[in-house]
Design a protein that fits this description.
This protein is mainly α. It has two domains: 2-190, no CATH class; 204-246. It is built from ten helices and five strands. The strands form two sheets. Strands 1-3-2 form a three-stranded mixed sheet. The protein has a two-stranded parallel sheet with strand order 4-5. It is elongated and about 100 Å long. The N and C termini lie far apart (111 Å). The model has no long low-confidence stretch (mean pLDDT 80).
Amino acid sequence: MFIQQDMLLLENQIPYQVDDPIPDTTSHLLELLQTRITKEKSRGTLPKDRYTFRNAKELIEVGIHFKSSQTRSLGYINFSSCGFFANLELPPITVDDSTKHMLLNLVAYEMCSNDTNEPWVTSYICLLDSLVDHAEDVKVLRKAGVLENQLGSDEEVAQLFNEIGRDLVPYSFAYSDVATKIQKHYDSKTNTWISQLKREYIKSPWAFVALFVGLVGLFLSGVQTYFSVFGIQSHCDSFCLYLKKHHRP
């Protein structure tokens, strides 16, 4: 593990041309790693000036559920919605003792690089930093299969991303289309209400039964009121029609 960490240090990168050239455009290990873990990308075109959604727990509250995507590319995430509910697919990542070291060196490489590779790892860290504020957020992502925690407590994982993500600036077009869709879903008051209703009543059998009985009672009360009002009116109309037909001057 220590040899691997030393090989990923920014200051220890040796150009392939000096050592053993390989058929790649990349020039050293960090660039090769950055290229391979950001192979697929969610590049947008119209980034918003401001996004107001916060952590993973807050997104759960408006009906957005997290899923582990099929790809492990840190540059790719996907958002899909169906009615009031939505799925946010994120690449799975294992967090262990070497994760912080690897991510910091990749961020350092992206900051120092003069090539055409955009800072996708930096953008991914900023995204996770925005989704993870507390241990509860780590738990949400862990249960969804997005995060595998081999570091220790969920609080340690939350602290790791909060520390790494501090003062980082993401690539402007990274995930911008996805973030816009998330914001649109987040701003919907109907989505919030439906999600709260689901959490408070559907998960509890007795609460659901009480809600169902209440709705049925409300429906029957409405039907009774309808027939009591319009039924009387119908009888009155029939009586008036009878009088007209049998009225003699």
